[in-house]
Specification:
heterodimer; A: Arc Repressor Mutant, subunit A; B: mainly alpha; disordered N terminus
């Protein structure tokens, strides 16, 4: 295969209009699969989360998971879709061993949610409204492992091994309408859409949307048409683009590749392409089968789903504040910059900080504890911040103790360590570890005098006006008091004692 | 059926080419002689079933389910399934706890 001729990106957008379409699959984090009671956790031993239904054994019958349907409807509602008052599942027939039934149970022409939109915010603050064609329910397929051949790829493999743990896990496919007119921003729009969709689905609590684990996957449809021609070009579908960065790269690559083909007088073939993470390029896969080849027909083993208006409204009532609106609100309340809020989101700390503030802590301290000390601890312990064994309420208590002068910052960190090590509530840790600021002035003055007496040359310097020399005395006092004195007060006392003499 | 299949010269409901196409989708090796036989047989079946359409009036909606049921759900609760050994017990071949299948010629769907 000869390498494709790529056209410079600026040149592409000067002469062509790209049209985007994005299909995103979201694996739901329900307790059980779509049509049977098997667990859905990622990473279990192969074929240990299976039963006669998801293995397609004779005599088994599927039953729809109510929570999965509700999750699908909530996703639809969050995307401003209408919920279909009546719809059926269908069988999508194809011959491939990743579905032991030899068909995938999906929705075809009666998707549960249709005709919505998502306003996607770009880096410069401008907004693009992306139309949502549909969101439908289906089931995930099993995982194949190709053995033999050079690269573990299907080509050249001698045989394949199948794990059906994933077969039947509820999947929601969200399909956009065609997105025209984005020009040179097409790659950015694609990335921003997937980013925002991911955040939205996450806020609904229906999926962990981990692209690295495949619980969110994206297919990128792209076509080019000569500028202002009003025609629509032939599209390609690039499959399984599995990171946000790859979404952007896949769009950019297909634009430059398709322009090269068109410039050479060639035709774009409607086909599936595979994204190559390493090179950021795409390679041709199979020619698209027509939907007729899937011989869809209504699933006879499942009865129709007809959500009542009451059910739909009840679910609408469970939708959380949109994540970006929440972020703006919090940002205004705390008076922080775009950058600071982004850091919090990236550190996965926004919810934790908000809960800590709700527990009475000032937002500045709450942010600082989570972003610095607790993030470090999470790092050291190789845990996610959210998995640390300390609650926002406990952090708020530590912040209060420091704020009231009961503890120094350093002691506060020791209390946090104690909580993380399972020593109990902050107050219990304070008690057990005997952490208390030495605020008894008499005891402190004695300690200062002793330190001055034991380092007469330093004392002499301080008396001579070299205030910075006080550090050595402060250090000695802190050591003598086991770090339980307020260092600032000690410094004041050192200076006082020296000038008083 | 594929729209670009040539029309059946005999004017039947299903053409020989369509049968060949369906056989390919189902990965069935069908000989030329069998294609003739199956095309003829399927044509009889389809024509017979199609007669239902002659009596179905406008006021009779197409039906996919015989029973007037809807919204049959299951709570999202786990039920014991099969262990690995049980799951693989009916497999012609297995390896490393997985079902072993012959070389796959197609592509992933």
């Amino acid at each position: 295969m000869t390498a494709p001729t790529l056209v410079d990106f600026d040149d592409v957008v000067a002469r062509f209009d790209p049209t985007l379409g994005l299909e995103v699959h979201v694996e739901l984090s329900t307790n059980t699969k779509m049509f049977c009671g098997c667990p859905t956790e990622f990473g279990a031993e192969p074929n240990t989360q299976v039963c006669p239904t998801c293995l397609g054994l004779p005599g088994s019958l599927p039953v729809v998971n109510r929570t999965a349907v509700e999750s699908a409807m909530r996703i639809g509602l969050a995307l401003n879709c209408s919920i279909a008052p009546w719809g059926r599942f269908a069988r999508k027939n194809y011959f491939y061993p990743d579905m032991p039934k030899n068909f995938q149970t999906s929705q075809y022409d009666e998707p549960i949610a249709v005709d919505g939109w998502l306003d996607v915010e770009l880096d410069d603050g401008s907004t693009v409204r992306v139309g949502i064609e549909r969101a439908h329910m289906e089931e995930d397929t099993g995982k194949s492992l190709h053995v033999g051949g050079a690269t573990g790829r299907i080509h050249g493999a001698e045989y394949s091994l199948l794990d059906y743990n994933r077969a039947g896990v509820p999947l929601i496919e969200i399909v956009t309408k065609m997105i025209p007119g984005t020009g040179d921003r097409a790659p950015e729009v694609a990335r921003a859409y997937v980013t925002q969709l991911r955040e939205l689905v996450k806020s609904l609590g229906v999926s962990d949307v981990r692209m690295d684990q495949g619980s969110m996957r994206c297919d990128v449809n792209l076509s080019l048409s000569p500028k202002a021609s009003g025609e629509l070009g032939t599209r390609t579908e690039t499959k399984n683009v599995n990171s946000l960065r790859s979404v952007e790269r896949a769009v950019r690559y297909e634009m430059t590749r398709q322009a090269g083909v068109l410039d050479a007088g060639g035709e774009i073939v409607q086909e599936t392409r595979h994204f190559e993470e390493q090179s950021g390029s795409t390679r041709a896969g199979r020619r698209k089968e027509t939907s007729e080849d899937y011989r869809y027909f209504p699933e006879p083993d499942l009865v129709p789903i007809a959500p009542s208006p009451e059910w739909v409204e009840e679910l609408r009532g469970t939708l959380p504040e949109l994540p970006w609106e929440r972020r703006r609100r919090i940002q205004a309340e705390w008076g922080v910059s775009d950058e600071e809020i982004r850091d919090l989101v990236n550190a996965g700390a926004l919810d934790l900080v908000e809960a800590t503030v709700a527990a009475g802590a000032p937002s500045g301290e709450a942010r600082s504890w989570w972003v610095s000390y607790l993030s470090q601890q999470a790092n050291t312990r190789e845990q996610e911040l959210t998995d640390l064994p300390i609650t926002p309420e406990q952090v708020a208590r530590v912040i209060a103790l420091v704020g009231e002068g009961e503890l120094t910052n350093k002691m506060g960190r020791q209390v946090v360590d104690g909580v993380l090590d399972g020593e109990g509530e902050p107050d219990q840790v304070v008690e057990k570890r005997g952490l208390k600021v030495v605020s008894d002035e008499g005891a402190l003055i004695t300690a200062v005098d002793e330190a001055l007496a034991s380092q007469p040359d330093v004392a002499e310097k301080i008396r001579g006006g070299k205030i910075q020399a006080a550090g050595a005395i402060v250090g000695a006092v802190m050591k003598a008091t086991g770090g339980q004195a307020d260092a600032k007060r000690v410094r004041e006392l050192v200076v006082e004692r020296c000038s008083a003499e | 059926m594929s729209a670009d299949s040539p029309a059946d010269p005999t004017g039947g409901v299903i053409s020989r080419d369509e049968v060949a196409h369906l056989a390919r989708l189902s990965r069935l090796a069908v000989t030329d002689a069998e294609l003739d036989v199956f095309a003829g047989q399927l044509d009889v079946i389809l024509s017979s079933v199609a007669r239902v359409g002659e009596v179905a009036a406008e006021d009779i909606p197409p039906t996919s389910h015989a029973v007037p049921l809807q919204n049959v759900f299951r709570a999202d609760e786990r039920r014991p399934g099969l262990d690995q050994e049980q799951a693989l017990s009916g497999a012609p071949a297995s390896e490393d706890g997985r079902f072993r299948v012959p070389r796959i010629l197609g592509e992933e769907q």
